[in-house]
Amino acid sequence: MTSPHAPVLLAEVIEALDPKPGDVIIDATFGAGGYTRAILERGAEVVALDRDPTVQPFAEAVARDFPDRFQLIRTPFSGLAEAFEESGKAKLDGAVFDIGVSSMQLDQAERGFSFMRDGPLDMRMSDEGQTAADIVNTWDHGPLAHIFKLYGDERQSGRVATAILRRRVEQPFTRTLDLADVVEKALGGRRGAAIHPATRVFQALRIAVNDELGELERGLEAAEATLAPGGRLVVVTFHSLEDRIVKAFLTERTGNAPGGSRHAPVAVETRKPSFDLLFKGAREAGEAELAANPRARSAKIRAAVRTDAPAWGAAKGRGA
After folding, report:
1. What is the largest CA-CA distance in the chain?
2. What is the tens place of the pLDDT at every residue in 88-143?
3. Exposure pattern of 153-188 as b/e (b: 16+ CB <10 Å)?
4. Which member of 120, 214, 220, 310 has the greatest number of CB atoms within 10 A?
5. Is 34 annotated as ligand-binding?
């Protein structure tokens, strides 16, 4: 079975990971197996992670082609450390994350991710937990408006939340196009808008349903705790919210977080950097890839190399 879409920034990911025969790499977002196949073709072993049960046929195809160097473990990012222990491998040489919803998931109307295709209002990347329908039919106005603003940057989040509460009294939401229509009307129609009015609301619901930002934070921390010295961490993001988390994580863990001023000094950080940047800042897709794959237009890649310093652990305020 071939991949239904081209993995974004594939050449850059492989260059950053630099997989070699004998290396063990975690592909934390297996999907259709695009990164995994490229890593395996370089001779490395892959422990693939994915919480989406629909990726199984792609995993079976990869396993047939690389029977001794590939395994898939169903888990979200936060289960990375446990999954690596389950794999039985001794040393982790690299980990790659591809954040967000895949075009494969968007194309499946029955998953409920898209406001362009009619389907059940689900949006779960796994087959567990609350759905988008659960959120829009049961959450109060304040929490709904909050996630639309925070996760979707929807400036009229309160108006959208009001419209949803008013409509659900008459009839609960069950379908994607139904919700998209209510959001569109609440925002005054399209009126030449560059993007569909429901784009931000659907993005916010998807992030909330799957706890995407929390999973990303816990996944990065798990990679830090699991990677061997010299192991490489590579992350591809598609949205500023995700990239901000990755940037902040690497800025802190490389010892480059801004310090206090002479008027407001901060305590000296005694922990040694757990990562060194592989390259400064974020890199983006080149013109050739942008022309061939429009999905790459918002993609950014950041990468770092694990030092031999102890892991810093969970972020302050989140607990261990």
Report:
1. 63
2. 999 999 999 998 665 544 454 444 456 667 899 998 888 788 999 999 999 999 99
3. ebebbbbbbebbeebbeeeebeebbebbebbbebbe
4. 220
5. yes
Please give the domain boundaries of the chain with CATH numbers for all domains.
Answer: 10-104+213-306 (3.40.50.150), 114-210 (1.10.150.170)
| Helix (H/G/I), strand (E/B), else coil: 308 | coil
- Whether 213 and 185 have beta carbons less than 8 Å apart is answered as no
pLDDT greater than 80 at residue 269? no
Q: Is 33 annotated as a binding residue?
A: yes
Residue type, 266: V
Which residue has 């950014």 as its token pair?
A: 300
Q: Does the annotation list 313 as a binding residue?
A: no
Please name the helix (run of DSSP H) or strand (run of DSSP E) that holds residue 61, with its range, or none. Answer: helix 56-65
Residue 237 buriedness (CB in 10 A; 0-12 / 13-18 / 19+):
buried
- The structure tokens 């603003």 sit at 149
Q: Does 105 carry a binding-site annotation?
A: yes
H or E segment to which residue 93 belongs: strand 92-98
Asked whether 75 and 52 are in contact (CB, 8 A), the reply is: no
- Tell me: the pLDDT tens digits for 30-88? 989 999 999 999 999 999 999 988 889 999 999 999 999 999 999 999 999 999 999 99
Q: In which element (H, E) is residue 49 found?
A: strand 45-49
Quote the CA–CA distance of 193 and 184 in Å, as a whole number.
11
Is 98 one of the annotated binding-site residues? yes
108 vs 91: CA distance, rounded Å: 36
58 marked as part of a ligand binding site: no
